[in-house]
Specification:
Number of domains of chain B: 2
InterPro entries (chain A): CcmF_C, Cyt_c_assembly, Cyt_c_biogenesis, Cyt_c_biogenesis_CcmF
Strand content of chain A: 5-15%
Shape of chain B: rod-shaped
Pfam families (chain A): CcmF_C, Cytochrom_C_asm
Structural class of chain B: mainly alpha
Helix content of chain B: 55-70%
Largest sheet of chain A: 5 strands, antiparallel
Number of strands of chain B: 0
Helix content of chain A: 55-70%
Strand order of the largest sheet of chain A: 2-3-4-5-6
Distance between the termini of chain A: 35 Å
CATH topology of the largest domain in chain B: Helicase, Ruva Protein, domain 3
Oligomer: heterodimer
Order of helices and strands of chain B: HHHHHH
Largest interface: A-B, 69 and 55 residues
Radius of gyration of chain B: 30 Å
Protein name (chain A): Heme lyase CcmF/NrfE family subunit
Subcellular location (chain A): Cell inner membrane
Shape of chain A: globular
Number of domains of chain A: 4
Number of helices of chain A: 22
Organism (chain A): Shinella kummerowiae
Chain lengths: 661, 152
């Protein structure tokens, strides 16, 4: 009964979001305030209904109600509770319901915290949110219904794919979706601006925090997914340029560009039209990512052709929204007034360069991801586009960007002095050279490019710190004054510096692990030793164990340095009972920012076992850098100056930014 | 996520997750082995989802790894090995697609897009040059300004 209630709530939610998408639009056309006022109420109702529906599905998983087909296919009564819950979105239907839930959640946030938005803008934004919700609501109910029943109900479920039974999966998709879907708000604001034909300061003030929040979530989600792949898949890779990864990385690149152009627009009223276009493109890339992952088109074009219902449906959503938005843009962009002017060498100019490179990078990754699909569809010829292509093209594009990043904040608005900025960066370059020399001393024998890359990472970190200290006047004014000025710097200055430092840290991690990683593949018997990263690992033997829904074999290793035992490592292979599916649980030990990574291979006939040991120097920097970037986004979100409400209201300052949480 | 699912299915096909290069495949000559590893990372495992034969645990990937090493031992250059593998498996096997008619757009995309973007920007700046910044005052605002200024 409760399942049917959940199903019914979802149908009601669909009806609600249809109302939310039509009435306010009619209201803005007729200038009818009562119709416009429907939007927030409908958005809140829609959110509550989808929330109820989602809770019902979660409940079915928690109590292992195998009469629900979706639960039967993806759960098991013996599964630990946390994976019963995360299993809700560990499958197609459930993850689409989570997508919708987050979408209506964002609509509800706009409705709740948008009281000080201009009435028409709010009505239009919520109407567009309603249209997107309608499309996905229809998609779920027509092609991917999670509430379908089985009769008779099976006694036991088929269990969740064991690779997905992991804490990383519990967190990764919700974070990723918060990012993906968060950009829908920027999209809706862009469409609303085009419908109304005007953009004002209130618009920019509103878009920037949403872009920041979505971007922060997406950063965290991608980093989480990367770390999960690293420890769960068992061969120590952390980025594969896999189409599914690219599907989340393209919106991230576009979103990063959007963040920066929204900054220019907010501060200087420039780049208005471009920002609107970027907001459309960023969410379009999110939709495209959803299509790529959910339609099965990536697995093979043929799988897509045999069961095309879902794929064609999402493709239709894609075409309608992207095509519609771009057509609207083509017709209406001219009505938006162009904003402030700036010289090519200026902070605006630097941000334009940032946008040019980031969008080119996004387009390059997109081309590489879609090229094999399109080529096969057009000519029938199959080619592969893999990591070598992406590493080369993406790397070449990023190089000038990374070098330019520290210059950006040092240039003045409107007209900057690139030589003066360069002089201020002397210290940063010095730090970079010293760091590179230190790495050469500690790790000689690597490729020259690796030292160069690490120097760039340190240069970015030092450059960001230079910016902060110049703003605080450290060295120019008395220490206590500088300290007070430093504390008093706006949150967005700290946010910028943190985000750029994060990029530098990630660059250091990426380069260090790529250039200086060592790998040993050996067949080991108890008592044998292997050296990695200055540590000696002694294989002590195997042990069998039993988990709630799997059996496992674990190898024990003693780790010593200079003859002294420092720690030990367990590395396991698991066999999940329900699906007869094996997984590797790599043994990982952290030393500073570096890690030892031990993974078990085949057992040999003579009693030995294949063991793979990697020394991954500075690898944690990759994800720590991403976390610092995310922290930068969050700090910038809480900048006090940005919490000022829409300027045309005479009312007192009202916090607006809570909405972006 | 799809990739992980595919991976999981690939795991089912083999008895236990044996990962990539096994000790019995490794060549005695370290220089030759290093070349083999580099080549392997550029060749696709034909039955996997976007995995190189160096990373893959599939039987077919193992066969291909052994083939690459066999050719290297026979004194083939890297290019000759690649050409041989392509002649047997087609262009699909290359993770780094070669520049030819079909891939011209692929390799050209980054350069073309960057140049197009840069050109559009330059043109935009040229066209906008000399125009006043910001929104000009409306007639009402001008009148108001005039009134305030004259009152002073």
């Amino acid at each position: 009964m409760i399942i049917e209630l959940g199903h019914y709530a979802l149908v009601l939610a669909l009806a609600t979001v249809i109302v939310q998408s039509i009435l306010p639009l009619v209201g803005t056309i007729r200038n009818d305030r009562s119709l416009m006022a429907v939007a927030p109420a409908a958005a809140l109702a829609g959110f509550l209904l989808v929330l109820f529906s989602f809770s019902v599905l979660t409940f079915a998983y928690v109590v292992s109600d195998f009469s629900v087909a979706n639960v039967w296919e993806n759960s098991h009564s013996l599964k630990p509770m946390i994976y019963k819950i995360s299993g809700v979105w560990g499958n197609h239907e459930g993850s689409m319901l989570l997508w919708l839930l987050i979408l209506v959640f964002f609509s509800a946030l706009v409705a709740t915290f948008g009281a000080n938005l201009p009435e028409r803008l709010r009505a239009n934004v919520l109407a567009v949110q309603g249209l997107i919700s309608t499309a996905f609501g229809l998609f779920i109910l027509l092609t991917s219904n999670p509430f379908l029943r089985l009769s008779p109900a099976p006694a036991e479920g088929k269990d969740l794919n064991p690779v997905l039974q992991d804490i990383g999966l519990a967190i990764h998709p919700p974070l990723l979706y918060l990012g993906y879907v968060g950009f829908s708000v920027c999209f809706s604001f862009a469409i609303a601006a085009l419908i109304d034909g005007r953009i004002d300061a209130a618009w920019a003030r509103w878009v920037r925090p949403w872009a920041l929040a979505a971007w922060s979530f997406l950063t965290a989600g991608i980093a989480m997914g990367s770390y999960w792949a690293y420890y769960e898949l068992g061969w120590g890779g952390w980025w594969f340029w896999d189409p599914v990864e690219n599907a989340s990385f393209i919106p991230w690149l576009a979103g990063t560009a959007l963040l920066h152009s929204a900054l220019v627009m907010e501060k200087r009223e420039a780049l208005k039209i471009w920002t609107v276009l970027l907001a459309i493109l960023t969410f379009s890339m999110s939709l495209l990512g959803t299509f790529l992952v959910r339609s099965g088109v990536l697995t093979s074009v043929h799988a897509f052709a045999t069961d095309p219902t879902r794929g064609v449906f999402i493709l239709a959503i894609l075409v309608i929204f992207i095509g519609g938005a771009l057509s609207l843009f083509a017709f209406r962009a001219a009505t938006l007034k162009a904003g402030g002017l700036f010289a090519p060498i200026s902070r605006e100019g630097a941000l334009v360069l940032n946008n040019l490179i980031l969008t080119t990078a996004a387009a390059t990754v997109l081309t590489g991801t879609l090229y094999p699909l399109v080529l096969e569809a057009l000519t029938g010829e199959k080619i592969s586009v893999g990591p070598p292509f992406f590493n080369l093209t993406f790397g070449l594009l990023m190089l000038p960007l990374l070098l330019a990043v520290p210059f950006g904040p040092l240039l003045a608005w409107k007209r900057g002095d690139v030589f003066a900025a360069g002089q201020r960066l002397f210290a940063a370059v010095g730090v970079a050279l010293v760091a590179a020399a230190a790495v050469i001393y500690a790790q000689s024998g690597g490729p020259v490019l690796a030292y160069f890359g690490i120097a760039i990472g340190f240069y970015m970190i030092a450059g960001s710190i230079t910016d902060l200290s110049l703003r605080a006047g450290i060295g120019k004014v008395a220490g206590n004054v500088a300290f007070r000025r430093f504390i008093g710097l706006p949150g967005s200055a700290f946010g910028t510096a943190l985000a750029h430092i994060g990029v530098g840290v990630t660059v250091i991690g990426v380069i260090a692990v790529t250039a200086f990683e060592t790998e040993h593949v050996v067949e080991m018997k108890p008592g044998m030793q292997v050296e990695a990263g200055g540590y000696t690992l002694t294989f002590d033997g195997m042990r069998r164990g039993q988990g709630p829904n799997y059996s496992e074999e674990s190898g024990h290793f003693t780790v010593a340095r200079g003859g002294v035992t420092v720690t030990d490592i367990w590395s396991s292979k698991r066999m999940y009972t329900a699906r007869r599916m094996p997984t590797t649980e790599a043994g990982i030990r952290t030393f500073g920012f570096s890690q030892l990574y031990v993974s078990l291979g085949d057992a040999m006939a003579d009693g030995g076992i294949v063991v793979r040991v990697w020394w991954k120097p500075m690898i944690l920097c990759i994800w720590i850098g991403a976390l610092i970037m995310m922290a930068g986004g969050v700090v910038s979100l809480f900048d006090r100056r940005l919490r000022v409400g829409a300027p045309q209201k005479a009312r007192k300052v009202k916090p607006v930014l809570e909405a972006a949480e | 996520m799809m990739r992980r699912l595919i991976l999981a299915f690939a795991f089912v096909l083999t008895a236990f997750p044996a990962l990539a290069v096994n000790p019995d495949e490794v060549l005695a000559d370290p220089a030759l082995e290093a070349r083999a590893r580099t080549l392997s990372s550029q060749l696709r495992c034909m039955v996997c989802q976007n995995q190189s034969i160096d990373d893959s645990n599939a039987e077919l990937a193992r066969d291909l790894r052994l083939l690459v090493r066999e050719r290297l031992k026979n004194g083939d250059s890297d290019e000759a090995v690649i050409a041989y593998v392509v002649s047997r498996y087609g262009e699909f096997v290359l993770l780094n697609p070669r520049l030819r008619g079909e891939t011209l757009l692929l390799w050209g995309a980054p350069i073309v897009l960057f140049l197009a973007g840069a050109t559009a920007m330059v043109l935009f700046v040229r066209r906008r040059g000399g125009k006043p910044t910001g929104t000009p005052l409306s007639e009402a605002e001008k009148a108001e300004l005039e009134r305030v200024l004259t009152r002073e």
